[in-house]
Amino acid sequence: MTAKTFCSILLGMVLVTYLPRVLPLFLPNQRPLPIWMERWLKLVPYTALGALIFPGILTVDPSRPWVGIVGGIAAVLTAWRLNNLVVTVIVAFLVVYMLS
After folding, report:
1. What is the spatial distance between Cα 89 and Cα 52, in angstroms, rounded to a whole number?
2. What pLDDT, in 10s, does the model give residues 10-65?
3. What is the Cα–Cα distance from 7 to 13, expressed in whole angstroms?
4. Helix 44-58 and helix 35-42: axis angle, to 10°?
5. CB 79 within 8 A of CB 88
6. By residue range, what is the domain housing residue 91?
7. Contact predicate 68/96, CB 8 Å
8. Total of domains in the chain
9. Please, are residues 78 and 87 in contact by the beta-carbon 8 Å criterion?
10. In sequence order, what DSSP letters do the residues of the chain get, joined into one string?
């Protein structure tokens, strides 16, 4: 790879990551967003978190994927019932540990 190609790739990556962070500062924010869009945007972090966690659930034990699925179900039920992050992580860990 030549230095010119490397610099072009680096500049492209900088623009792709920098522009979405800077553009909202310069756009007028006096126009309110539609309600449906606000609700949709509020769900994006949960969706991203789910996309990051779900593959890990399936690969806890590649020979027995049901172990991770049961641990994930235990985590969801614990989080829904208790609404406590620390207890949810501990319960999921213990369930996977006992099944492994």
Report:
1. 16
2. 999 999 999 888 887 887 777 788 899 999 989 999 899 889 999 999 999 889 99
3. 10
4. 30
5. yes
6. 3-99
7. yes
8. 1
9. yes
10. --HHHHHHHHHHHHHHHHHHHHHHHHS---SPPPHHHHHHHHTHHHHHHHHHHHHHHHTSSTT-HHHHHHHHHHHHHHHHHH--HHHHHHHHHHHHHHH-
